[in-house]
Amino acid sequence: GIGIGIGTDSEPVQPEVRTRRRWTAWAVGFAVLGAATIAVAAYPQRTLSTANADFHVGCTGRACDGQDPQTTLCGVEPQTLFEQVTSQGAGLQVRYNPLCKAVWARTWNSRLDETLTIEDENASQTVHISRAGDLDQFVYTPLLGLSDDNGHSLRVCLKDQLSSVADCYPVKTPPG
Description:
By secondary structure, this protein is of the alpha+beta class. The chain has one helix at residues 15-42, and strands at residues 79-85, 91-97, 102-108, 114-119, 124-129, 139-140, 144-145, 153-160, 166-172. Strands 1, 2, 3, 6 and 7 form a 5-stranded antiparallel β-sheet that branches. A 4-stranded antiparallel β-sheet has the order 5-4-8-9, with no helix packed on it. Strand 1 (79-85) and strand 2 form a beta hairpin. The longest helix has 28 residues, at 15-42.
């Protein structure tokens, strides 16, 4: 049979031929690895960093009111201003993107018929958890746009509509 290090049945491969084949295989492997490393190093790295001058969000301030954090790209690299496990065992966060000047709340491990609300002194945004499919993922409010860069006082609530139990928390945005 023919294979690595084996000749025909009647003709064994000499040890120096076997060694030469191994060195050739190693050299080819290292050459491919080296070429791949050079190609990756030479390729310009692009990330969606908010520090990147080419990165633009879809809205700013009050123009974000009611919009989706994901489709506006406000959900890219947000700051978490607040995180809590509620008395009912749900996770709760308030997220903020300084490029958007907007906040939103999100929850997980929540239950059906709960309502998540985030509000400031001027407006509020709410989402109602009404589908079983929502229980396996983050559920988040639409964006609440902020009017300026000054620190804002917010309130986030997760309320069980059946029992009227509400977990509410004050949250401050950082001054701009």
